[in-house]
Amino acid sequence: MNSVTASAPGKVILAGEHFVVKGEPAVALAVNLRVYVTVKEGRENITIKSNYLKNKVTLSLYNLGNTKSKIGKVVATILKSLTKDGDIPPLDIVINSEIPPRYGMGSSAALSVALIKALSEYLGLKLNREEVNEIAYKAEEVVHGTPSGIDNTVSTYGGIIVFRRGEGFIRLNADTSSVGLVAAYSGTFKDTKELVIRAKTLSDKYPRVFDPLYHAAGRLALEVAKALKEGNFHAVGELMNVNQGLLSALGVSSLQLERLVYRFREVGAFGAKLTGAGGGGCVIALVPKEALNRVMEAVRPYTNWVKELKVSYEGVRLEVSRG
Length: 323
Prior knowledge:
By secondary structure, the protein is of the alpha+beta class. The chain is built from nine helices and twelve strands.
């Protein structure tokens, strides 16, 4: 087969990031920004090109792990999981991402999921979604250290899910047609691994304080799931606001994030909070459909990137196969 393209969606988390790492439930949804990965026949080695990379990354077929590039390490991990030593053919990998990196919208997981799907087809492996998801988790470990698994899961399966580490996920059926979801970039970003360690260090230092807080965050996520199913978006927004307070207490918010959060609330959002690891990245806001345009215009002076998001009910998919 000469060329295969696959894609996978990014995500936002409505409730539960950081707390999900310690086994509490979280609610996430796949969004209509996708990462597209094309795998085609190469000449000598593995080459990786991306619209978010300045330079091409090259991996030796005989020493895949010999790279300082994070994306190179991810690709090497995936290839080692899919092939036996000596069975890796020369490949050109081309990545076209609609998800800006470090925006807290799951770009690394979407990349891994899409790449695994494309390679599976190219190499004739025909992996199912469960197998794609398992390998994507290994790739996320390279990027984030101790990921919960929520990003790769929602990117693989799509839709709205309630996820619990070690237990899996359930899909939520919710009619979101009466609300809009808006993301706005704070202008700064932080390393996910660093923020996970920061949150864990603080919670481990004061377990009698943070154990109840983690439990409360888990209960909050379940209340968000219930409110979504009932179509009570005012309640979802209120709970998002509470969740933001818990994340702030955990030390993963920032002044830039808080300014956006409060601006969204001032101009009519049901609720607003950071999404992803925090420290920077994006704020998401749940907005009445009729107020969507007004809210977005009111926030534009505070950000250089604001976008309406929609739920992507389709997870990873094959786009093109030529051979």
